[in-house]
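Usage

Read records sequentially. Each one opens with the input sequence:
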Amino acid sequence: MIWNQKSECMPRDVLAQAQLERLQATVNRALRNVAFYRESFARSGVKGDEVRALDDLARLPFTTKEDLRTSYPYGMFAVPLRDIVRIQSTSGTTGTPVVVGYTRNDLKTWSECVARLLAAGGMNEHDVMQVAFTYGLFSGGFGLHAGAERIGASVIPASTGGLEKQVRIMKDFKTTALACTPSYAMAIAAAAAEMGVSRAELFLRAGFFGAEPWSEGLRTHLESSLGITALDNYGLTEVPRPGVAFECERKDGLHLNEDCFLAEIANPTTLEVLPAGSEGELVLTTVTKEGFPLLR
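and closes with the structure output:
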């Protein structure tokens, strides 16, 4: 199912024009309000008004994880702190955490992106979603929660915790959709089996899994043990997570929210942009984020 026909099914020329206008606005906002970008552009010799076509994106300097860490905590914010209504961050397990800020409009856009993700997996206002991601500085739980509310579904903010409790909630509250990591879903399935709760006693029909790698073998296992269609989604805290890209019920690759994110594939050694279909490093640019815009 398509959540937003107008935005998700734009003709390619209309989409390209929207992407360019949003990219130009994002570049201007970043240069006007973020010292890092002013310095980065100055070093590269590129001026913001030189972005006249989407191909000009390849001329812009990259933003690295180390750049984001060096800007801790608020150095990358493009609006005053009084306009930031949500602050979240990465875990910091591999270094200084990256702190991300959202304006009210950012949260609306994020919930829109996740609503598309859920609708593509068959969810609607009649569903009951059990969100078994951690609620806290980790962004995944909040994103799926808001997206499910956006489409009118009932949301159970189960977070993580005792597996038996997850199974009881799933059975008693008639959960139809589960959102968590695939490994946690596997643990829930094992707990249900140990408790003697069969697939027939559950109302589950869809699982939305992310935040860690998983295999087709694990997908098959989850679908058979829980009686669901298991779908992958992609995002990262900085961009955000989830909502960047997602599978639909055909499970034939990820759909990118192209009106919100620009994707490039770069050669990790030479950093040159590669043609479509090439294998390389994924480079993302946000074109709708106000509080924490990211270029390349």
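Summary fields computed downstream for this record:
- The chain has nine helices and eleven strands.
- Residues 12-33 form the longest helix (22 residues).
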